[in-house]
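Field log, afternoon session.

UNIT: design team B
ACTIVITY: writing a sequence onto a fixed backbone
BACKBONE:
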């Protein structure tokens, strides 16, 4: 066997010797392939892990079309009456501003045109001359003469003669008409004698305009922002330092980032729906929002990434605005311009999202929990729903500010109950209000139970029932600002937390609405039963995952709903959960002090006209058993001698009533138990003898030693405060 002529690198003779060698090894190719592919069937063939259906490319199916998401036919601003009015108001305002701007500058524009008219006239005259005599083709004709192409030169010359002859006739006719028109102006009306020269000056002035100096000034300066493209987004995600994204882009390039919909304009910005690589969650990107903004070369306040856990944890909705949200002028609260009363059964305008759309919350059948670190708009956010409730003359307001800074002071003039301060008296008033609120819930439940099904089919307060004064089922809105001061109070905190939990669970259907705000969302300052049962939550800036989930709900941080991403300048901006199907980034409406005073003045007038102004607003002090609390322990020691170690609760209530009928005449055993609970004193089984029957029995009672210890502890605490 001869080797090929074009390749002498292979030794064919050695190969032939190996084939003839009886000791050579024979390789079984099928066995070798099976060794490389251990997953095989009994016949030695490879087993396909994916089924034939899984290997086929997806097809269009009717079921797939039914489950698909339909894109809206009309844009959002056309489907919302409020947004349509807002857009039309902006368009009309923009048109009026632009028109007025240019009308004021008409003399300036006329002067510019007049100064530029001679240059324009010269340009028009020279251009007409060049056109008539065909000077544009002169260079071509001269070039043919230089090349001594006589036939081409004669052809171009004849063409030029025909052009000049025809253009000369047109120019002569036009000039004659101009002269006749100029002569006729002597008999034209005066307005025409001014209008025609003005038109000529305008035309000449426009013709004489320099290329770098436009005639009109700029009425509205529109910021120029770069388009958001897929390349820009992929580049920004690649620099975040997330291992899953970096590895996927290194292997697949730009295909590693999937865009589930085209990048489109969405309000004053761009929207991108993104599927992140496997194993990367939206939360991973959200916590690097500052790096993402740097990668997009946009201000931090323009970049708002959001997760969509209802789709899957790796779905990211990226909205990039044209302007920093913090620098955007805030919109006025819609209820400022409204006249008359407001129905609290309607959605309350709460704020705007990054796109500038108004976001509303519903107050009935839910409770509102607001939290943040100090100084980021928590009290201002609390004010908005309370001011809306104040404008409903049939809604009753109870307001408690446990910080004492006066954040809710404008509401005092319309509140049936009001207290503000950091002292024990304010904390006690809050506790007593919660006790009364618990009783009110029980009363309302009894009223609703007694109503016919035709009037109350769902066993809950409706807007119609809330307007019927005789039933007493009006909306009752209670604001507890800086509630951590109450819930963490050594004496009242435990009972207040238990009462708030019961109210927040039961009051929702009874027309009782709690608005709870705190700057310290932890287990002690915000009982789990309260935070877990709030239907609507708003979290401004917080510093950690625990605080985030205490306000927004368990696993919110894990699902990418992270109020930790807000920066220092994002005051009033937070995550709103429960007002819609998805979490929303909202910038609350801001109502300053003087404006809030005007609103509450209007609200007070509405209540006076409706006859619903009561309680603290008209100087009626709420009934409070403060004296009972202050002297209860001492009075018990008075009626229970030191020789009597234990006493029944009903016996104790009888003795207290004999001691002070005015303070303890209506005291029941259950009320006594509740009054002792803040001191850490509980009732237990006490053996005693019934004075009526003379028989011994075990009944609920107290230990006198517990009362004495509580008094000693109280006196010690008071002594420390005095020191």
């Amino acid at each position: 066997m001869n080797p090929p002529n074009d390749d002498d690198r292979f030794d064919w003779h050695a190969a032939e010797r190996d084939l003839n060698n009886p000791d050579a090894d024979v390789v079984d190719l099928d066995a070798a392939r099976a060794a490389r592919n251990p997953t095989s069937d009994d016949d030695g063939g490879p087993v396909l892990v994916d089924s034939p259906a899984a290997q086929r490319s997806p097809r269009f199916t009717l079921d797939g079309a039914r489950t698909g998401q339909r894109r809206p036919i009309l844009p959002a601003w056309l489907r919302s009456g409020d947004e349509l009015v807002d857009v039309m108001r902006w368009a009309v305002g923009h048109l009026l501003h632009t028109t007025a701007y240019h009308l004021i500058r008409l003399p300036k524009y006329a002067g510019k045109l007049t100064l530029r008219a001679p240059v324009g006239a010269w340009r028009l005259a020279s251009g007409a001359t060049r056109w008539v005599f065909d000077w544009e083709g002169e260079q071509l004709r001269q070039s043919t003469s230089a090349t001594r192409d006589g036939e081409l030169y004669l052809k171009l010359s004849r063409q030029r003669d025909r052009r000049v002859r025809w253009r000369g006739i047109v120019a002569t006719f036009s000039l004659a008409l101009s002269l006749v028109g100029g002569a006729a102006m002597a008999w034209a009306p005066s307005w025409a004698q001014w209008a025609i020269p003005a038109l000529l000056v305008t035309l000449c002035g426009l013709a004489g305009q320099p290329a770098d100096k436009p005639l009109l000034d700029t009425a509205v300066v529109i910021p120029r922002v770069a388009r958001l493209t897929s390349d820009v987004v992929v580049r920004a995600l690649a620099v975040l330092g997330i291992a899953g994204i970096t590895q996927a882009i290194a292997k697949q390039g730009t295909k590693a980032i999937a865009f589930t919909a085209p990048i489109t304009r969405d309000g004053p910005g761009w929207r991108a729906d993104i599927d992140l690589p496997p194993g990367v969650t939206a939360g991973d990107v959200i916590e690097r929002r500052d790096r993402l903004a740097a990668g997009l070369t946009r201000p931090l306040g323009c970049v708002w990434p959001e997760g969509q856990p209802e789709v899957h944890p790796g779905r990211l909705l990226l909205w990039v605005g044209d302007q920093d949200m913090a620098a955007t002028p805030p919109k006025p609260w819609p209820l400022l311009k409204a006249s008359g009363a407001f129905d609290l059964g309607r959605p309350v305008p709460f704020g705007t999202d990054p796109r500038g759309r108004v976001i509303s919350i519903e107050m009935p059948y839910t409770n509102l929990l607001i939290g943040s670190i100090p100084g980021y708009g928590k009290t201002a956010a609390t004010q908005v729903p309370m001011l809306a409730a104040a404008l409903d003359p049939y809604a009753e307001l109870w307001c408690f500010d446990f910080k004492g800074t006066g954040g809710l002071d404008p509401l005092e003039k319309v509140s049936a109950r009001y207290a503000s301060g950091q002292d024990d008296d304010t904390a006690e008033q809050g506790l007593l209000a919660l006790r009364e609120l618990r009783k009110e819930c029980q009363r309302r439940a009894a009223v609703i139970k007694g109503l016919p099904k035709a009037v109350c089919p769902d066993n809950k307060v409706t807007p119609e029932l809330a307007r019927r004064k005789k039933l007493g089922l009006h909306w009752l809105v209670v604001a507890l600002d800086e509630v951590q001061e109450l819930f963490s109070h050594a004496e009242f905190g435990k009972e207040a937390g238990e009462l708030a939990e019961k109210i927040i669970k039961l009051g929702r259907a009874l027309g009782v609405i709690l608005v709870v705000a705190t700057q310290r969302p932890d287990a002690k300052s915000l009982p789990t039963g309260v935070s877990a049962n709030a239907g609507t939550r708003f979290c401004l800036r917080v510093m950690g995952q625990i605080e985030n989930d205490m306000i927004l709900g368990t696993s919110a941080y894990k699902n990418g709903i992270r109020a930790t991403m807000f920066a220092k300048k994002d005051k009033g901006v937070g995550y709103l959960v429960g007002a819609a199907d998805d979490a929303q980034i909202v910038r609350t409406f801001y109502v300053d002090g003087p404006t809030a005073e005007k609103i509450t003045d209007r609200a007070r007038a509405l209540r006076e006209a409706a006859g619903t102004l009561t309680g603290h607003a008209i100087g009626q002090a709420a009934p409070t058993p403060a004296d009972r609390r202050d002297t209860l322990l001492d009075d018990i020691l008075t009626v229970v001698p030191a020789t009597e170690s234990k006493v029944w609760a009903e016996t104790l209530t009888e003795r207290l009533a004999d001691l002070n009928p005015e303070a303890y005449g209506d005291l029941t055993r259950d009320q006594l138990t509740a009054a002792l609970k803040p001191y850490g004193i509980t009732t237990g089984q006490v053996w005693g003898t019934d004075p009526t029957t003379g028989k011994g029995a075990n009944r609920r009672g107290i230990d006198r030693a517990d009362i004495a210890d509580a008094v000693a502890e109280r006196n010690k605490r008071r002594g420390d405060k005095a020191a």
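LOG NOTE: The mean pLDDT is 82.
NEXT ACTIVITY: expression trials, pending approval
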